[in-house]
Backbone:
């Protein structure tokens, strides 16, 4: 009874944590009561639907319209990635429209999202259509240039965050170029001569404002020490962008509602997001324990073998081999996926790259494991489920999938409630849980099959040949086992990220320039979730005694995240 009560206590506590986090993020996004936040939809010229978050200061009226700013994210992102700009601009008197670009987030595939956003914003009664700004990060910079050319709205201020300056634009408004000093995709920080044509000046210096705001010729470039991914939450870039919009759209005047541009609160939104996603993820553990104890799921549980365990030497040796497979196959198999992209029509960009890495790495890991066990059969530390009869195995798989699916429905239900109630997702800057459009939902089964294979193979490594000794206290054993599994699975990825980011902070230069350095964004996005999936593998084995529950939960979770994140092409 004590265990049962503890499960419910943990479940209730995790829900409280989740609600506290979403509440904190929600009030921050709403400017602590000074901003109205809603989600809106509108059509682009090609009839594609564009989804956006609209933040309106409560004192905006049709008789006292405010300047407006459109904010556009980069590739493999969505509107929430740039919410720092929306939060800080809206609380200072700008009507802010942060959009999901075409094919991203909840917007349809197509084109023209930037121009459609400008038209929508400029036509709102409480927006001064003569004072419109644009902020674009990475791909969003390119969409911003297209919007300037395609829209009838005159843009008075443009902030390019980690994006290129167009050499063919019909006109360039007041322009702020904000790029991380070790942005792998940009040459501007190391070659300012590239900006001379658009600035109209030579011998450009970072941090110096050129031209004049009144006639639209103001130019400025800043290069704080950050990389391409973290430019969107860099305090210097956000603060400078707010100041740039004030000088461009408000004539530099600080009215009674103005807040100093260095007084930033978006970090609270990030903390709230972290707390909320921590709470909702934590809730899965007691939920699975409660469900697994129901009579319908009793027959999927068995007592795990505890007869033998890997020695420390074997654990470290096998762990090193498995980690090497994961890292060593990343770039080669990513290249295979890029080649397949030219050969096969797939509904999501970058989907084939991830499938190639996941499936190819799984096959290699399984073959290596098979060869190791063939040469050293004594390492097969746990009895195989393959001895079960087919009907028993099929029944176990079906009920285990049902258990995992209910857990995912639990999270999805909370995701919808938070989205409808507070216009939020479960995220902390990096990807989390958000609702799926119909086309995105159709890709989930494809990813699930591939990812289930991946996590089954991983389970055979982490809690098969690398199983640790069983201790008297199961909690101590679980903690020990989980921490060691995380160290083996996730340690190498975090070491690479620390080296790459640390090198940039120290030198101000990218460790790996170009697309190779950019591809590390996959590690930034997925490494934290690798920690969670490793915990689920160990926890699922503890609850059921077999390898299926953890991989199924992980496959559903990762399928959802990938399907919601990657750009739709159709």
Residues:
């Amino acid at each position: 009874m004590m265990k049962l009560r503890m499960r419910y206590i943990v479940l209730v506590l995790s829900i409280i944590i989740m609600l506290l986090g979403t509440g904190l993020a929600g009030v921050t996004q709403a400017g602590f009561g000074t901003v109205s936040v809603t989600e809106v939809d509108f059509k682009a010229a090609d009839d594609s639907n564009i989804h956006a978050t609209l933040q309106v200061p409560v004192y905006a009226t049709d008789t006292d319209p405010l300047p407006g700013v459109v904010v556009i994210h980069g590739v493999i992102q969505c509107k929430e990635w740039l919410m720092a700009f929306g939060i800080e601009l809206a609380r200072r008197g700008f009507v802010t429209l942060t959009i999901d670009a075409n094919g991203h987030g909840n917007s349809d595939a197509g084109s023209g999202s930037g121009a459609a956003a400008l038209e929508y914003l400029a036509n709102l009664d409480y927006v001064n259509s003569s004072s419109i700004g644009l902020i674009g990060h990475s791909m969003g910079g390119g969409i911003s240039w297209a919007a300037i050319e395609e829209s009838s709205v005159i843009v008075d201020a443009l902030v390019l965050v980690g994006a290129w300056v167009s050499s063919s634009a019909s006109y360039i408004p007041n322009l702020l170029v904000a790029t991380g000093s070790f942005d792998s995709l940009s040459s501007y920080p190391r070659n300012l001569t590239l900006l001379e044509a658009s600035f109209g000046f030579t011998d450009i210096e970072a941090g110096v404002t050129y031209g004049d705001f009144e006639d639209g010729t103001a130019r400025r470039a800043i290069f704080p020490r950050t990389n391409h991914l973290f430019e969107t939450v860099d305090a210097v870039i956000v603060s400078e962008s707010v100041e740039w919009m004030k000088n461009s759209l408000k004539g530099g005047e600080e009215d009674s509602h103005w807040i100093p541009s260095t007084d930033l609160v978006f970090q609270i939104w990030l903390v709230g997001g972290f707390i909320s996603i921590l709470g909702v993820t934590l809730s899965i553990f007691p939920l699975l324990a409660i469900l697994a104890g129901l009579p319908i799921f009793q027959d999927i549980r068995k007592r795990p073998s505890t007869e033998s365990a890997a020695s420390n030497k074997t654990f470290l040796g096998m762990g090193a081999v498995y980690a090497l497979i994961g890292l060593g196959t990343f770039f080669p198999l990513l290249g295979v996926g890029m080649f397949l992209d030219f050969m096969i029509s797939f509904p999501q960009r970058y989907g084939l790259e991830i499938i190639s890495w996941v499936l190819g790495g799984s096959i290699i890991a399984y073959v290596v494991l098979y060869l190791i066990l063939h040469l050293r059969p004594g390492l097969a530390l746990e009895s195989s489920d393959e001895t079960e009869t087919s009907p028993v195995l099929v029944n176990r798989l079906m009920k285990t999938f049902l258990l995992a699916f209910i857990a995912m429905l639990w999270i999805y239900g909370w995701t919808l409630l938070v989205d409808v109630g507070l216009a939020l997702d479960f995220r902390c800057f990096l990807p989390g849980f958000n609702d799926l459009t119909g086309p995105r939902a159709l890709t989930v089964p494809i990813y699930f099959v591939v990812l289930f294979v991946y996590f089954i193979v991983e389970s055979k490594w982490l809690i098969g040949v690398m199983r640790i000794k069983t201790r008297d206290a199961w909690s101590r054993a679980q903690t020990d086992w989980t921490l060691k599994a995380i160290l083996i699975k996730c340690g190498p990825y975090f070491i690479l990220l620390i080296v790459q980011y640390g090198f940039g902070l120290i030198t101000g230069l990218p460790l790996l320039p170009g697309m190779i350095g950019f591809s590390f964004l996959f590690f930034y996005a997925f490494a934290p979730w690798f920690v969670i999936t490793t915990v689920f593998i160990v926890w699922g084995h503890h609850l059921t005694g077999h390898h299926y529950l953890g991989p199924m939960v992980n496959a559903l979770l990762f399928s959802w995240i990938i399907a919601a994140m990657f750009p739709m092409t159709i």
